[in-house]
Amino acid sequence: MIAVTFALPAESSEFLRRLGNKFCTDRNGTRIIRGTVDDREIEVLHTGVGEKVCRQQVEKFLKDQQFEFLISAGFAGALNDQLHSGDLLLARNFSTLDLTERQSFPSLPIHQADLLTLPALIDSSEERNEIAHSTDAAAVDMETEFIARACAEHGIPLLSLRVITDTPHEPFPAPPKVLFDIERQRTHLVKLARFLLAHPNHIPRLIEFARRIARARKILATALVALINKL
Asked: Which residue in 160, 106, 107 sits closest to 138, CA to CA?
């Protein structure tokens, strides 16, 4: 059995579409999607965004379970201009799965660099540059560190794979607090609508961002299927 985690359904929908024999179940009060990629059995968990909900969900998910390995998948934001939207990033500082013992790595254009887990979304180019200069990270997310800790506690090999959705030159189309409410674990649509009414010039940026997200989902799903078939 292989485990795959995403923060939100917005990240996983294309991968879930490619699962065979798919069905939902509950375990320890947590909703899990089960299915197959070819003949490999897969369990998918949505961890939620941020430390609190992620740690709770992952602990319940891994309790009394044995997985061959876990893939922490989803979106990430680039800290420098060497990564572009749609690029795949293998987080070398979090990944513990020994790929050398599992034949060759799939022939995918995957960058290998460090990933940093932060407690909040970042937006400005200045903030990204400051974090890039003060750390060795190339990109940021909000969950992988906590997934890595849980995997280490349970002795489960981890592979962290992210797709870039925003960069210093391709930022969010609205302030992070407008785009996503961490407490509610969703976008506050009324707040977003008010922002767009006050800043109509951001509407084309939002449309373009939605296109980037859709493309990123497909790229990530294709990479995950290829990895699972190869590993």
From this structure: 160
181: β partners: 186
In this structure, are residues 170 and 85 in contact, taking their beta carbons and an 8 Å threshold?
yes
| Stated pTM of the model | 0.92
Q: Are 126 and 148 in contact (CB under 8 A)?
A: no
pLDDT at 107 over 80: no
User: Does the pLDDT at position 104 exceed 90?
Assistant: no
**What pLDDT shows up at residue 123?**
80
Q: Are 53 and 47 in contact (CB under 8 A)?
A: yes
Q: Residue 141 CA to chain centroid, in angstroms?
A: 7
Round the average pLDDT of the chain to a whole number and report it: 91
Q: pLDDT for 162-211, tens place per residue?
A: 999 999 988 898 988 888 888 788 888 898 999 999 999 999 999 999 99
DSSP string of 84-139, one letter each residue: -TT-EEEETTT----GGGSSSPPS--EEEEEEEE-SS----HHHHHHHHHHSSEEE
CA distances 17 to 30, 67, 80, 100, Å, are: 20, 22, 32, 30
- Structure tokens that stand for 134 in this block: 């003060």
Domains in the chain, CATH or no CATH each: 2-170+216-230 (3.40.50.1580)
